[in-house]
Structure formats: C-alpha cells, structure tokens
Amino acid sequence: MKELVEVIAKALVDSPSEVVVTETEDDSTINVELRVAPGDMGKVIGKQGRIAKAIRSVVKAASSKENKRVNVEIIQ
Questions:
Q1: Which CATH class is domain 2-75?
Q2: So where are the chain's domains?
Q3: I want to staple 46 with a disulfide (CB 3.0 to 4.6 A). Which of 33, 34, 51, 71 is the partner?
C-alpha cells in the first residue's frame, strides 16, 4: 500500500522529493501516513477533500485482496 500511495502523491504535487509515506501494520489494520510539503497540501486534499477521498478509495480497493482495513492519514 505504501508504494501505491507514494506513486499517487508524487504525481499530484510540485515537490515530489518531499513526499514521505510511512506504513505501520497491526493485526487487521494497515495505517499509512502521507506527509507532503505545506504548499502541496491543497493539491493532495483537493476541493472539499475529493482527491483525498479518491486516494482512500483506490487504496481500499487495492487492500481488499489482503482482507485488511487501510487507514490513510494526510499529515503536514
């Protein structure tokens, strides 16, 4: 999941070198934290959170094979 979020985020932002994705895994949950430059927050979140919601939907669809829940957090 980490690689998927990283590829999507780097395609959206102006500073792809500042994109940092960390992944932690519990029993049935995968937590993915996405950090971007402060100037790129709006590009990753989108109007009314539409892009963030789309990222979460794609990751959820990709994680359905593993039968695990994925939480994607966007952190500044």
A1: alpha beta
A2: 2-75
A3: 51
Distance of CA 64 to the CA centre of its chain: 16
| pTM for this prediction | 0.90
53-68 residue pLDDT tens = 999 999 999 988 888 8
Residue 27 has pLDDT above 90, yes or no: no
- Report the distance separating Cα 48 and Cα 63, nearest Å: 25
- DSSP structure string for the chain: -HHHHHHHHHHH-S-GGG-EEEEEE-SSEEEEEEE--GGGHHHHH-GGGHHHHHHHHHHHHHHTTTT-EEEEEEE-
